[in-house]
Automatic annotation (TrEMBL):
Residues in Zn(2)-C6 fungal-type domain copies: 84-112
Ranges that cross the membrane: none
The keyword Nuclease appears for this protein: no
Biased composition (Polar residues): 34-43, 50-62
Signal peptide coordinates: none
Name listed for the protein in its UniProt record: Zn(2)-C6 fungal-type domain-containing protein
SUPFAM superfamilies: Zn2/Cys6 DNA-binding domain
An example molecular function term from Gene Ontology annotations: transcription cis-regulatory region binding
Region (Disordered): 31-69
Entry GO CC: nucleus
GO biological process, alphabetically ordered: positive regulation of transcription by RNA polymerase II
Superkingdom, taxonomy of origin: Eukaryota
Keywords: Nucleus
Length: 604
């Protein structure tokens, strides 16, 4: 017997559950016999249909166990990288991108190189030394750039804080070289050596030319050649350390006011005799960098000797570049002591390399053109003050018109800044020192030289330049060089003729205006570094104390701007010349006195 009460209670309980429970309770409904596929279909209750509609319309809140999208993305970024690690990319396999290290690399016991892409150090506007693009710059490879005009304010030497550590404030940008460089010629260098290379690229390369155009600066192309010659690497670091030491001394000792430069030049204590290398070696601020300079120079000399003696016939461009850099180092370090030996060696190496190459290879070897230009320029100006004039370039022995083309490159590729026409005339004057009797028709040759010198127009040369803001400085520079060439020519070829325009009265007339042209170029003007040779020649010819004080001021400006030690030595030699002039009984020319000195000076 069924208990009727219990059955009714169970029925009412099921009904209440179906009414209030969120779980859908489905019922079977009769289907039409014609729809066979829909037979026995389970139909949802109206309660379930209502819940589904509301969820689709977004009226119900999301379930508690599901996080928002931005939270899930933040958690994913915290545990996974956005790209594959470098190790998996190199092996071309799929990376799990887990942080901090890839799990795949750890499981295979591989060193995970991280997820950041390395920034390669690319030397822009440099010359390719091998391959299809040898001899081309990065500007030549891409689109042809527009002509660069030298606009903007003139570069001023920066003050260096010695308390911040060596080379802490070098270069125009505060950034430093990364510790892991990918370039093969820099990856084995210590951080200190890299700082000196950085100083060479950012600072010293600009001092090596008059107008700094990175696409045409030959010193910027030295860095890729470091892998071919260790002597070149140590030479670059040595000259950078010397230049940095001099700049550090100047920054710590120069007056705070710009107007004090003239007063410092006239102070009782001669500025050119103080703060020499012996004094610098005893100062803690300058001792370390000076020792580095001397150490790298000694290593460079030893390595250069071995590289040259191994196979002299196959000396690379890097070896020749190291020899040429030693000439520049002598100018920065002292101004004497071996530049002529390096110059002879470089000239011989360039001559042998030119003979071993055909004409097509010479066109794709821009370094040979620079070597030829630098050796010729330094040889011409160095021969003017050398005891014996032995021109290193055979083309300088005669008035060769084709020789002028080589000298035109010196206006842009060196810091000398002498007009090519005047440099050519200095070369012609030097040829009279060798053996005047060997020159055919000596009288006509001298007259032709004087005529070309007289017709040279400094203003026309100055205006033959794209940027007009430098026309005035170029005019002062050309006037000073022309007067200095006239003074030098008067001492050499003056006794050869009885009547010429280079008389004593003419030299006395042009001397004071020429020195005023030197003073017109300020310390902040980068043309100041080109005044060493004309300032020395004009200063040696000066007779009164006022003009000599002006010359001291000019050399003091050159020293503060270029940091080259030969500016101090030039004033020291001038003091000896001026002291000899006090003895009127000798009657000897100052040029003959310089030729009798033991040292061979390169005042450029």
């Amino acid at each position: 017997m069924f208990d009727r009460g219990r059955v009714l209670a169970a029925i009412w309980g099921l009904a209440s559950i179906a009414q209030y429970s969120p779980v859908p309770i489905c019922r079977y409904e009769k289907t039409p016999p014609s729809d066979f596929n829909s037979r026995n279909r389970i139909q949802p209750s109206p309660r379930v249909e209502s819940l589904t509609t509301h969820r689709a319309q977004g009226q119900l809140s999301p379930p508690r166990n599901k996080r928002p999208n931005h939270v899930r993305k933040a958690m994913q970024d915290a545990f996974f990288a956005s790209n594959s690690c470098r190790t998996c990319r190199q092996k071309r396999v799929k990376c799990d991108r887990r942080l901090p290290d890839c799990v795949r690399c750890c499981s295979l016991k591989l060193r995970c190189q991280g997820y950041e892409r390395p920034k390669k150090l690319v030397w822009t506007n440099s010359v390719a030394s091998r391959g299809k693009l040898m001899g081309m710059t990065t500007l030549d490879i891409g689109e042809t750039p527009k002509p660069i005009l030298l606009t903007g304010a003139a570069w001023q030497p920066r003050k260096i804080d010695s308390s911040a550590g060596p080379l802490a404030e070098t270069g125009p940008s505060p950034g430093r070289l990364p510790l892991s460089l990918t370039d093969t010629y820099l990856q084995d260098l210590t951080p200190e050596c890299r700082k000196y290379i950085r100083y060479f690229v950012l600072d010293l390369s600009r001092e090596s030319v008059v107008y700094d155009q990175p696409s045409k600066n030959p010193f910027l192309a030295l860095v890729p050649l470091m892998s071919q010659s260790k002597a070149l690497s140590h030479a670059m670091m040595s000259i950078s350390a010397f230049h940095y030491t001099h700049r550090l001394v100047i920054s710590n000792l120069q007056p705070h006011s710009r107007n004090d430069s003239v007063a410092a030049a006239r102070s009782p204590e001669p500025w050119h005799l103080s703060n020499n290398h012996s004094w610098q070696m005893n100062q803690p601020k300058f001792r370390d960098s000076l020792r580095k300079a001397l150490s790298h120079k000694q290593k460079a000399l030893e390595l250069l000797k071995s590289e040259v003696s191994d196979d002299p016939a196959k000396n690379s461009d890097a070896t020749v570049a190291a020899v040429v850099l030693f000439i520049c180092m002598d100018v920065v370090e002292f101004g004497s002591h071996g530049w002529d030996h390096h110059l002879r060696g470089a000239a011989e190496m360039v001559r042998s390399r030119r003979l071993s190459r055909n004409s097509e290879e010479l066109e794709t070897a821009p370094w040979l053109k620079y070597f030829d230009t630098a050796c010729t320029t330094f040889g011409i100006l160095g021969a003017t003050l050398a005891p014996t004039c032995d021109p290193l370039n055979p083309r300088a022995n005669s008035l060769n018109p084709s020789f002028l083309e080589v000298l035109q490159h010196s206006e842009k590729q060196t810091w000398v800044g002498c007009p090519a026409e005047l440099l050519y005339l200095i070369s012609a004057v030097n040829s009279f020192r060798v053996d005047p009797a060997t020159i055919p028709d000596q009288q006509s040759a001298v007259l032709d030289l004087c005529k070309r010198l007289h017709n040279f127009s400094p203003l026309a040369w100055a205006e033959n330049f794209a940027d007009q803001q430098y026309h005035e400085s170029r005019s002062h520079l050309a006037h000073a060089y022309k007067a200095a060439v006239e003074v030098y020519a008067a001492h050499v070829i003056g006794p050869l003729l009885d009547h010429h325009y280079l008389s004593a009265s003419h030299i006395l007339e042009i001397l004071q205006p020429a020195i005023l042209h030197l003073l017109a170029i300020s310390q902040e003007d980068f043309h100041i570094k080109s005044l060493v040779w004309p300032a020395f020649v004009l200063g040696a010819e000066a007779q009164n104390s006022e003009l000599r004080d002006f010359i001291r001021t000019v050399f003091h400006r050159i020293w503060l701007s270029s940091c080259c030690y030969n500016a101090k030595n030039a004033v020291e030699v001038l003091d000896k010349i001026w002291a000899q002039d006090l003895d009127k009984s000798s009657g000897e020319s100052w040029l003959n006195y310089v030729w009798k000195l033991e040292d061979s000076w390169l005042f450029v």
